[in-house]
Batch of 4 targets.
Target 1
Amino acid sequence: MKALTFSEYGPASVLKVADVAEPHAGPGQIRVAVRASGVAPSDCGLRSGQFRDMMPVRLPHVLGVDAAGVVDEVGAGVDDVRPGDAVFGIVSLTELGQLGGANAEYAVLSAWALKPNALSWEQAGGVAANVETAARALDLLKVGVGSTLLIEGAAGGVGTLAVQLAVARGATVIGTAGPHNHDFLADLGAEPTTYGPGLPERVGVLAPDGVDLALDCVGSGSLPDLVDLAGTAERVVTLADMNAAEHGVHLTRSAGPGADPQALDGLTTAAALAEEGRFTVPLAGVFTLENAAAAHRLSETGHARGKIVVTL
């Protein structure tokens, strides 16, 4: 089958579409003929070698952690889907305990939900891993009815989903983004403000009584401000700041050393909300598999509004 691979660490230009062996569904797994799959900052980190010590991979490596497609193999013990069903989900762990393999013609999934009709293939193909990440972070923060949550980087791939899931839980959400994304965040249900110096003062105007919790989706160095705003480091979670421990903040990840349990029930929750018209997946860009290097370059700008997807 065709798959997006890299055989050496480096810039986006090291990406190649190559022929690799097809994977097959094992017990508790399904295989899908992929229609679309996501590109995430973590894919760029793996490809560049940024994560080589924390999350080593065997080269050549097939990238991608989430996909949407049509089920064509069902492993032993799976009874909730059958061949022909349209699903979206997260790939299975590799032999090294790392995620990968979705940017390909076929992918084996270990967690999935039926694709809601309200989401296109492109939207469903890029959403599963980010939904899991957002739901895991919200669970760690215990976001619920009455919470006031500050999301740093609310217009990105995870941030846009975290806003919607938090609002669905009954939280009040303040989201940071550039001014050009403020109307976009308001449409998702967040009170927008600008990131950068002066954040505590701006948030103070929007939430005179303070915020209860803070989620950092970008790792831009704002953790001291977020801790001050939330009151204690225990009320802050980051997805991207590798210096989190210096501030007493919890860094959450789905794979690698120190990984937190995955919040896989978030997939069915997101699907149900989508069918109710309460959840959508903004797309920052859709690329062919052969043009995936451009997708990686867009991700590396740090300014993609929504999810980046490759289609097959």
Target 2
Amino acid sequence: MRIDLHCHSTASDGTDTPAELVRHAAAAGLDVVALTDHDTTRGYAAATAALPEGLTLVTGAELSCRVDGVSMHLLAYLFDPEEPALLAERELVRDDRVPRAQAMIAKLNGLGVPVTWEQVERIAGGGSVGRPHVASALVELGVVATVSDAFTDEWLADGGRAFVEKHETDPFEAIRLVKSAGGVTVFAHPAAAKRGRTVPESTIAELAAAGLDGIEVDHMDHDTDTRARLRGLAKELGLLTTGSSDYHGSRKAVALGEYTTDPEVYGEIVRRATGAFPVPGTGGA
């Protein structure tokens, strides 16, 4: 089985619609794909309706969190999307995205970059607005060559000249909320230092004690030595280890299924979940 447990659609900051995402996943030879848009579940219905036969959909979300001043992302799988407390927290995070993006635009304007809210809103296309959309605007304007080039101290990286903080959930509270909604939690790209400051291993140990299920090890932002270190940490803490593409369509240079999760780990995630079940494809439109 080929299993990719971290993918984004136009419901957040990917460039494939949810329907396109599942069709592309099937074409890439995947057996299981997870839809994990940022702080939203709005892509579920369209992805399910289009799900090709032979492909299984895992519903999820990538939750924006912050601990001790450091941003981190928590992948949540197979939770009940209508559970009130988790839904309210996702909406709180999502509602803060628009004023945050507008504040970043104002900072960029102050730096002489003629980006506009209308431009960013067009790029987002109705999805949850985020830094990648602002970064794409910088690419369109020729300020940077690629989206990744916008995530530097000069522009949009944490603490960068145009960076603006947003509401982010305490990860210990996020774990509690996801568990209460019957879901499973995995710390996304925990050692992606190129994105900014990372959470120390001591905090990962505390998160594990609080119920964290796993960490994402095989990821484009982790080199070979980092993956080995994370596997050792996971073994020490009794955590599951996943691998995922973190696919964003054309916004990132990574292919669906470029990194995958072991079938036994996937089986354990499904076994632990009580809020929702994987959706088998029956041949969507």
Target 3
Amino acid sequence: MPELTTSADEAATAAPSAAAGAKLPEPKPEKTRSLWGDAWRDLRSNWVFVVSAVLILLLLVMAAWPSLFTSADPNNKDLAAHYLQHPHYGNVFAADWLGYDAQGRSVFARAIYGTRASLLVGAGTTLVVTILGGLIGMLAGYFGGWLDAILSRVTDMFFGIPFLLGTMVMLNSFTERSIPVVIGALAFLGWTQTARVMRGSVITVKSTDYVQAAKALGAGTNRILFRHVLPNAVAPVIVVATISLGVYIGAEATLSFLGLGLNGVSWGNDISDGGNSIRVAQYIMLYPSIMLSITVLAFIMLGEAVRNALDPKTR
């Protein structure tokens, strides 16, 4: 019996030793998420972002392929189809679904085709403003000194010009106001806010340790600016650009309403034309106004969601 007890004790002692000698699997290292990864995770669970993104996607499809929504010509003038003929709400997606304007043009077709002009003006202006203002703000914030003083004073001079009034004066000198002309006029006075936001963000980023380490290792100015400073300073600019896109769409509609915007199909032009017959046919002004409001609201909601996702104070 003692021998059996000793053998059992030896077996029990040997089992932990064998287990200790076996190589345990190493735990997998956790993936570190970046600012953009955390932002995307938050955005996917934010209903404001989802709703605004779906609306913007629908508007993009509408602008790219308007024939999917209507087969009517927005410039076709049928004098027999006057605005005194009320809309036929039973004919969904037909030319007379939302009625006709005073010139016999389909209100629904013009509301659909007006999406393209508004989105092109908004996106084009935002792109030019972001590139121009971002470059000016990055140079002023990184180099500082006399360059910062000069660029900041130039920015203040442009800030002193009323945005809509200055744009109206510029567009009034053009007889043919196409989309590039309107984009140029809006961008000429709209880059100042982006420049200021970028300048403040670059000033904050350039004093961080990784930028100082890149300088100490002898990295060139271009490498530091575009590999270290710009990717970490661009988040506030993206937020401003997203919100400003809706603002520029509203500005284009305002200019068109005043007769100084686009010469083609535009929500602002239709709203202006509808004002002449608002007492007898309110729907002529109503539907392009609804389209404009939904578009501007969608981009503002998207900008707010992006801002909350990129704000480190909310984490």
Target 4
Amino acid sequence: MPPVSPELISPRSARVAAARRLAKRNFRGKDRLFLAEGPQAVREAAGHRADGTPTLVELFTTPEAADRYADIIGAARTAGAQVHLASEEVIADISTTVTPQGLVGVCRFLDTPFEDILAARPRLVAVLAHVRDPGNAGTVLRCADAAGAEAVILTDASVDLYNPKAVRASVGSHFHLPVAVGVPVERAVAGLQEAGIRILAADGAGDRDLDEELDKGAMGGPTAWVFGNEAWGLPEETRALADAVVRVPIHGKAESLNLATAAAVCLYASARAQRASGGCRSVTES
């Protein structure tokens, strides 16, 4: 089991330079590696494996963080990751946050082939179509995880799953459920429909009301929600692919809901309906 480096790693180290460049998408894609920052994300990464291979490759930690998060350091070492002691200067150099928390992990890509998601017969799926803001993407991923969704799909017109802001916004949910990336929206919808999954497009101008759909008992079956860009929503051609276009009702005076809030409402509505019909795993299951 690799020990923690006894000395601080140099800012000029090749390992530091390799980690630093993962802030850029082209290098992430070339190396198939990304950064996970902070104790929650690193803890989840240390415990994650894909096909038996540990996800966490390296961990950079300040001495103070190593003492404070000894359990995470131990989990990283158990996973076989190289653990480097680093100065605050090095952590700041690698980190993409304004106030780093002293832990930065280097992780292997963990996206799942779309065909594997279909083969697992998921009952609740979030599809991010044309979502460009990484914070929104990461937050929707977190909402999907919390609601008990069994997969997330990012279309080829959406933001990079491994953008540091998206990883931070998911607060560890990157490591909890299968995510397919780069899937054309037409292919995503067609594949899900062929698997017997109802496609609901979430749009403020939808002709179906979410409350009414719930009251009719129409939400208990396998469902994939399609969410669009927060600024301009879903284009007409994407809405046309769905089985129904559903709006979240606004009962007060708010002009609208932001993307992540609307996604949480829709996903939880489906999760509740599916649990009531006995068709979806409980969000309390381990």
